Amino acid sequence: MARADAHSDAILKVANIESYYGPIMAIRGVSLEVPRGKIVTVLGANGAGKTTVLKTISGVLDPQKGSIDFEGKPIQRLSPDRIVRMGLGHVPEGREVFPFLTVAENLSMGAYLRSDRDGIANDLERIYDYFPVLKARLDQAAGHLSGGEQQMLAISRALMNRPRLLLLDEPSLGLSPLLVKEIFSIIRRINQAEGVSILLVEQNAKMALEIAYYGYVLEVGRIVMADSCERLMQSKDVQEFYLGAKEESARGERRWKRKKTWR
């Protein structure tokens, strides 16, 4: 496998982590890196362990084995609030906004660690530039927003803490194709304009591979393939299993009916 940090230092290094839900091993021997200022994506089917990887990095789950270094410091088994204070933001699957709080109150919760009022005000204006609809909904309860608006709010709430690394879990989940394009365009803007490193977990492989620099393929809790996104898009396995390409063998048997080879 080619190394993600071949030409850049890594803001995040994950080495051989194993995490469990009770007696069940969810991920095994997972290693990955996020180069500073880059977008890295993790692809995989439902149940592959993608969300578990992010939860383990952000401290929601403690790994039983392995190490996690953020900005050169070990963070495995630290509490989630300490990891947030270090500059790592996590936008979970399903958005998980505070439904009974207003949009403004949700954004304030994202900045609860900060006391620089001028900086917070400036960051709010930046958020409104990314997501103008939120400015028009400031007094509305977050639970009454559409799915796309809640996703925008969840990302904005994380940005209010000025993270240096942002973990995004399925930002396109349940959104219309038009909204998916808008969300991914803004993710790219956040990365390019602000230099925020991003680890993106996503089932929409095509969109993820188009905006990311490097990618990992996760199958049944383990990494089976890792390479630049350009090379991954050319991989026949990725094309078949994640991009919807149809390839048939000489006997007319589609490759998805046979065992994956992960060349």
Structure explained in plain terms:
The protein is α/β, with parallel strands linked by helices and 263 residues long. Strand 9 and strand 10 form a beta hairpin. It is built from 10 helices and 10 strands. Helices cover 35% and strands 24% of the residues. It has helices at 50-58, 80-85, 103-110, 117-130, 132-135, 147-159, 177-194, 205-211, 229-234, 236-241; strands at residues 10-21, 24-35, 39-43, 65-70, 73-74, 88-91, 165-169, 197-201, 214-219, 222-228. Helix 3 runs parallel beside helix 6. It has a domain at 10-95 and 163-257: 3-Layer(aba) Sandwich (Rossmann fold). It has a 6-stranded mixed β-sheet, sandwiched between helices. A 4-stranded antiparallel β-sheet has the order 2-1-4-5, covered by helices on one side. It is globular.
Topology at a glance:
Elements: E1 10-21, E2 24-35, E3 39-43, H1 50-58, E4 65-70, E5 73-74, H2 80-85, E6 88-91, H3 103-110, H4 117-130, H5 132-135, H6 147-159, E7 165-169, H7 177-194, E8 197-201, H8 205-211, E9 214-219, E10 222-228, H9 229-234, H10 236-241
Helix pairs in contact: 3-6
Percent of residues in helical segments? Answer: 25-40%
| Count of DSSP-assigned helices | 10
Please summarize the sheet with the most strands. 6 strands, mixed
**Widest sheet: strand ordering:** 6-7-8-3-9-10
Key phrases:
35% helix; 263 residues; 24% strand; single chain; four-stranded antiparallel β-sheet; six-stranded mixed β-sheet; globular; alpha/beta; Rossmann fold
